[in-house]
């Protein structure tokens, strides 16, 4: 009885981890230098209500790109924001956006200018490598100012201490559950063994005799 309990706990924790965390291999250089092609990025699974400016997110938008449905880009503006570029810098709500993560210190890339309002329930996204990334800037005439719906977002990249903390917690949880499973199995074995030892010996039948040895 105790051994199955330990196994159930282990399976439940694995399912919980799988539903809360994920990981992807980066297939392009559009997010360099923060994330390079071939890097493994660990993520936490979220919905659109948990997205913030500056988040690096994976979103699913079938039909936007011919070669993939899952895209990795950074959130620049959220619903209601005014996002603009004067050819030298990106501004959000009239203030220059401090972007220490962009490749080569260039927040503009091709030098194009724009000035737009992000519709409610949508996000304006760009890659960190503005020279190579095909992001919201390339879809400005789609009727939604190049934005994506918030519910297209599936995961957010775990950066810095977040990765280490998550991995440590998962490892510690796995080790704990392994010990619990082993403990439950050992306890079940000992209880069964003790129960067998306590079983009374059968009483001899009156009038019966032991068979003679051969």
Structure in a nutshell:
This protein has 214 residues and is α+β, with helices and mostly antiparallel strands. It has a domain at 23-158: Umud Fragment, subunit A, CATH 2.10.109.10.
What does this structure look like?
- With 214 residues, the protein is an alpha+beta fold.
- The chain has a domain at 23-158: Umud Fragment, subunit A (Ribbon), CATH 2.10.109.
- It is built from two helices and eleven strands.
- The chain has helices spanning 2-20, 161-197; strands spanning 21-25, 40-45, 56-60, 70-77, 82-85, 90-92, 95-96, 114-117, 122-126, 148-149, 153-157.
- It has a seven-stranded antiparallel β-sheet with strand order 1-2-11-3-4-9-10. A four-stranded antiparallel β-sheet has the order 7-6-5-8, with no helix packed on it.
- The longest helix has 37 residues, at 161-197.
Assembly status: single chain
- Helix % is 25-40%
Spans of at least 5 consecutive residues with low confidence = 9-18
**CATH class identity of one domain:** Mainly Beta
Radius of gyration: 30 Å
Count of separate DSSP helical elements: 2
Shape: elongated
Task: Please identify the structural class as seen in this structure.
Answer: alpha+beta
CATH homologous superfamily label of one domain: Umud Fragment, subunit A
| CATH architecture descriptor text of one domain | Ribbon
pLDDT averaged residue by residue: 81
């Amino acid at each position: 009885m105790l051994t199955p309990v330990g196994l159930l706990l282990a399976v439940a924790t694995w399912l919980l981890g799988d539903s809360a965390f994920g990981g992807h291999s980066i297939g392009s250089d559009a997010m360099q230098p923060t994330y390079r092609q071939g890097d493994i990025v660990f993520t936490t699974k979220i919905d659109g209500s948990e997205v913030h400016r500056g988040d690096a997110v994976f979103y699913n938008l079938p039909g936007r790109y011919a070669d993939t449905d899952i895209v990795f880009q950074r959130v620049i503006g959220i619903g209601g924001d005014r996002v603009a570029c004067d050819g030298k810098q990106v501004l959000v709500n009239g203030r220059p956006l401090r972007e220490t993560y962009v490749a080569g210190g260039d927040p503009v890339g091709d030098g194009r200018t724009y000035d737009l309002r992000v519709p409610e329930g949508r996000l304006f996204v760009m890659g960190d490598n503005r020279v190579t990334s095909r992001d919201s800037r390339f879809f400005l005439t789609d009727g939604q100012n190049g934005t994506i719906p918030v519910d297209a977002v599936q995961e957010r990249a775990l950066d810095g201490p977040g990765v280490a903390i998550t991995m440590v917690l998962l490892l510690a949880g796995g080790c704990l559950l392994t010990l619990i499973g082993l403990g439950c199995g050992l306890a079940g074995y000992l209880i069964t063994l003790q129960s067998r030892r306590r079983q009374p010996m059968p009483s001899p039948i009156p009038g019966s005799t032991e068979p003679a040895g051969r």
